[in-house]
Amino acid sequence: MEKTILIVEDETNIVDILSFNLEREGYNTMEAYDGQTGLQLAREQNPDLILLDLMLPQMDGFEVCRQLRADGSTTPIIMLTAREEEADKVMGLELGADDYITKPFAMRELLARVKANIRRAQMPTPAVEDTANRMVLGRITIDTERATVEKDGVALELSQREYDLIRFLAAQPGKAFSREALMEKVWNYVGYVGDVRGVDVAVRRLREKLEDDPANPSFIVTRRGLGYLFNA
What we know:
This protein is 39% helix and 20% strand. The chain is built from 8 helices and 11 strands. The radius of gyration is 19 Å and the shape is elongated. The chain starts with a strand and ends with a strand.
């Protein structure tokens, strides 16, 4: 089945170039030239992926992304931005964007990211080897049947990504995984093209919900030069 890409971008020449190249690769495209229209199309048409500019009339890309994730949408979002500020990139990832690419970009790289994100979204949640439906690790209990996590008997409100991350790490306590390995194992993002800071954002948000003191984590620990691990 052909996949549909929603392009939300106010520069007509960029929309035309993106549409032409995406359609040549076999994708269907929809276009919106302001944030409000883009949000409406995303809600009504449920595209397979969204290319979302940050600087838009009526509603910026940050707000479009925030509202879609608040709706529960898991559609992959790649943010397009001419900005180089680190804070903008991190904010986009924290709001739920899957990736970003900075203008001017190489079309080959953008197409590779589109393909990788669509493939990742279609893959099932990675399997974790555990012999029972409950993983009890000290103060932390993970119910793999209900996909819930409790700390000291109190349920935590985690996103699907945060749950997938702690479940994967907790299944192999004490073993450190690099950001690239987590992109492949948790994000199902084999052959990742792009920034791995999405892992850092997910870890930080998970720590805020899981740790007694997020600034001094005791469960999700960083091993310098190695990556992240679950400390049982």
